[in-house]
Amino acid sequence: MNPSHDHLITLAIETSCDDTSVAVLRGQTVISNLVSSQINRRFGGIVPELAARAHQAGILPVLRSALDEAHLAKKDINLIAVTYGPGLIGSLLVGLNVAKGLAFGLKKPLIGVNHIEAHILASFLEKETPTLPVVALVVSGGHTLLVLVKAIGDYQLLGSTVDDAAGECFDKVARLLGLQPAEDSMMGGPLIDQLAKHGNASKFTFPRPLLKDRNLNFSFSGLKTSVMNFLKPRSSNEIENDLSDICAGFQEAVVDVLVEKSIRACLDYGVSELVITGGVAANSRLRVRMKERSDREGIKLFVPSPAWCTDNAAMIGITGWLKYKKGVISTMELSPQPALQW
Ligand code: KG4
Ligand code: ZN
Fold it and tell me: Which residues are within 8 A (CB) of 253 and not within 5 positions of it... i.e. 6 or more apart?
């Protein structure tokens, strides 16, 4: 490793969805990471226009606070990493424009980062880092996929959801259950996670879609429909009384599928390390079950701390830094790619 890379100051910007986040890293170490979740989901989802406007209002104050917290000034920045996709075009544009402005004004390299790649490489923010190759399960509100990470920048998609993402399913089921978020910006997944802790997961059983299929794809929309059909004949009182058990039963179905397919991917590809990441990787039951199962199979499990699992700019910073070390630099023509794939 080039020792000078360890001291590089990376400024990272993430605005792909509804969190405005800026982080400052020295080498691989995060010095500051601010996440401002200011967009409400009271319309039952994210409104792209409102998201973009909120990013616009928030980005410069968040940037200033991240630098202040790191006790650094703009002149100290060595490289700028920014998410360029996938995500909402208007939101991505806000982060990209600020990043480009900084790179141009400070004459520093700009590195465009794929948001999903960053979720995976968030595992490199921890003290103990994986040794490649690893299998990565990315489970968020927008994505559910299994990826074979052969090297930084060398990925093979092993499977993905054919319909809803796991996090989306958590959010939709939370809404079906009438779990009104405490704050507008609160998502459904953590609420189900909390309630399920007091529930009996075997009282109600929900389907495990594609569990028995040999392929590594996922499907969650049928599971959501099955919860909907389960709730239909029940009164709100009955639902209220069984809320924790319903949450636990539903959560167990999602976790079963995620655990089985991830372990199968490791065994099929002869890989002995597994990373789970993305917002849903913050789920307490998933963390426990995946650990039990991977221990049994002799697979080493890496789960970034919850703050690095949900959307954050630190993961963009570490990915930008790792790419820069490999000689990757973007041009000023870097444009947002809402549907960016691998
Ligand atoms: O990665 P993320 O912050 O944003 C996206 O890129 O989507 O993931 C957000 C998703 C939401 O669907 C949220 O409900 C889910 O992650 N999530 C959880 C938990 N914490 C966040 N799902 C289940 N259990 C949790 N503890
Ligand atoms: Zn994400």
Answer: 205, 206, 207, 208, 223
